């Protein structure tokens, strides 16, 4: 039985900051951000959106009356959780009006968690062929204004339906993992912004890619030339390019050129959005599916997932007949094209307006946010999620 990605949705806020202008404001050459890091724009998340509401806005695009009652499991990957006990998946289940006799769980392992959810979902469908699983990756990447990590911020959500006989991609067996206890990136419980050792994390990312790809090839006898493309977790788009270039000597020049060409398609959306943490790899995948003119059913795409701390996985998917009509590419393009640019002053004000970690009541700026699902604030230490009537 074939199991894989049946539907895919994406959401980010309607505001962004231009990276060339941000570079000038930080007394940096624009090329450092545009070329050295590989980012053109960065999504800016208002205080009326969080991991839950962005997930709901992404998932709402792919849930309808045909699949709603078949969903019996929600797996929500995030490192921007809103509660240390209650799962973000429970809030999401309620907002999406899913049936109550289902399982809903939040998963955490830095940027790897959505991949863990996809693999768990695949196994669930193999055991229950009539089931459909909603898998989420939703995060806000925050390092702080004027920090070294500021140009690698961003935010958004990816949502997928995993099912039997999927319309977009099947997930192949097996996959390859590597896990090690390292401190390249972390966020203590008391902090709203991450701590990162950038150079060390970049080195480990490439090492984990090499290890998992090598193990996958040993398990399956797969050659690099068997892959039409490789997509990467992209905390910033230059990172994936570095990893890809590290293995191009293992294939011929023609195929190396092909992989580089497909990589450029895969980073178009991430250049416009920034870091999605758990959803980043799958925004890269969506970007490839929407933008590449070279993909055909039956071709294989390799995926490299990395979550600091650290865990990596390499696996392969196969394009299905008619995948082009199932990906909803026009919706993504319109979402990105219709955004509004913020000045540096407006960006900094929006960044600093986030709801604080406190017991105090708080009201968000809902009047500026037209998204269907939004966070109205906090009252009596409870988050106030709302669904806009449209």
UniProtKB/TrEMBL annotation:
Signal peptide region: none
Domain Hydroxymethylglutaryl-coenzyme A synthase N-terminal residues, every copy: 2-165
Keywords: Acyltransferase, Transferase
Residues passing through the membrane, by range: none
InterPro entries given in the database record: HMG_CoA_synt_C_dom, HMG_CoA_synth_N, HMG_CoA_synthase_prok, Thiolase-like
EC number(s) on file: 2.3.3.10
Coiled-coil residues: none
Pfam families assigned to the protein according to its UniProt record, in alphabetical order: HMG_CoA_synt_C (PF08540), HMG_CoA_synt_N (PF01154)
GO molecular function, one term: hydroxymethylglutaryl-CoA synthase activity
Residue span, Hydroxymethylglutaryl-coenzyme A synthase C-terminal domain: 175-248, 266-385
Family: Belongs to the thiolase-like superfamily. HMG-CoA synthase family.
Protein name: Hydroxymethylglutaryl-CoA synthase
Source organism: Pediococcus damnosus
């Amino acid at each position: 039985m074939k199991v894989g990605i049946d539907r895919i949705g994406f959401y980010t806020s309607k505001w962004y900051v231009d990276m060339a202008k941000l570079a000038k404001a930080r007394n940096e050459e624009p090329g450092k951000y545009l070329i050295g890091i590989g980012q053109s724009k960065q999504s800016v998340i208002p205080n009326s959106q969080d991991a839950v509401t962005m997930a709901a806005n992404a998932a709402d695009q792919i849930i309808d009356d045909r699949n709603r009652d078949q969903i019996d499991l929600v797996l929500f990957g995030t490192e921007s959780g809103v509660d240390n006990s209650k799962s973000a998946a429970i809030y999401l289940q309620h907002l999406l009006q899913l049936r109550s006799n289902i399982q809903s769980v939040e998963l955490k392992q830095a940027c790897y968690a959505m991949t863990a959810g996809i693999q768990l979902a695949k196994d669930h469908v193999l055991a229950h062929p009539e089931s459909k699983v909603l898998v989420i990756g939703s995060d806000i990447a925050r390092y702080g204004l004027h920090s070294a990590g500021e140009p690698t911020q961003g935010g958004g959500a990816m949502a997928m339906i995993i099912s039997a006989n999927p319309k977009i991609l099947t997930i192949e067996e097996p996959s390859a993992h590597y896990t090690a206890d390292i401190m390249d990136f972390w966020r203590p419980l008391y902090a709203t912004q991450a701590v990162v050792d950038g150079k060390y994390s970049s080195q480990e990312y490439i090492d984990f890619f090499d290890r998992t790809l090598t193990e996958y090839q040993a398990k399956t006898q797969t050659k690099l030339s068997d892959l039409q493309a490789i997509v990467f977790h992209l905390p910033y788009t230059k990172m994936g390019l570095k990893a890809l270039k590290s293995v191009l000597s293992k294939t011929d020049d023609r195929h190396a050129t092909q992989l580089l060409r497909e990589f450029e398609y895969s980073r178009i959306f991430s250049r416009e959005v920034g870091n999605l943490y758990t959803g980043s790899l799958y925004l890269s995948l969506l970007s490839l599916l929407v933008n590449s003119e070279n993909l055909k059913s039956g071709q294989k795409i390799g995926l490299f997932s990395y979550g600091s701390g650290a865990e990596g996985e390499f696996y392969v998917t196969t394009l299905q007949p008619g995948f082009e009509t199932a990906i909803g590419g026009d919706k993504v393009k319109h979402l990105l094209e219709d955004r509004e640019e913020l000045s540096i002053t407006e960006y900094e004000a929006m960044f600093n307006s986030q709801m604080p970690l406190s017991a105090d009541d708080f009201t968000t700026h809902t009047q500026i946010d037209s998204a269907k699902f939004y966070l109205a604030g906090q009252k009596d230490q409870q988050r106030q999620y709302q669904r806009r009537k449209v």
